[in-house]
Amino acid sequence: MSTGNVVCPRCNENSRIRRNGRSTSGMQRYRCQLCLKTFQLDFYYLGSCPDVRQTILEMTKGGSEYKDTARTLGISLKTVIRQLKNSRYKVN
Ligand SMILES: [Zn+2]
């Protein structure tokens, strides 16, 4: 079964990607047969999406309060702080 233009976020492989069931929230998951990692492209909860960390960082550097960032993005305050810590941003 072809998965179209799904690309592995780790190794950028796009021809050996297989569907790998669904996440608990019902999103399609994929498995890369090259690096054997599983991943998903769509997230029910935005806080789980890898791209959201960059948004959080930019909002924080732009002077947004953590709780405002959380509310704007529709994620929890804990997620905001965890993502900032993971990005090695100095959390006050
Ligand atoms: Zn891969």
From TrEMBL:
Keywords: DNA recombination, Transposition
One of the GO BP terms on file: DNA transposition
InterPro entries for this protein: InsA_HTH_dom, InsA_N_dom_Znf, IS1_transposase_InsA
Name recorded for this polypeptide: IS1 family transposase
Signal peptide start and end residues: none
General function of this protein: Absolutely required for transposition of IS1.
Family: Belongs to the IS1 elements InsA family.
The keyword GTP-binding is assigned to this record: no
Organism, as annotated: Erwinia sorbitola
Residue intervals of the InsA N-terminal zinc ribbon domain: 1-35
Annotated Insertion element IS1 protein InsA helix-turn-helix domain residues: 43-88
Entry superkingdom: Bacteria
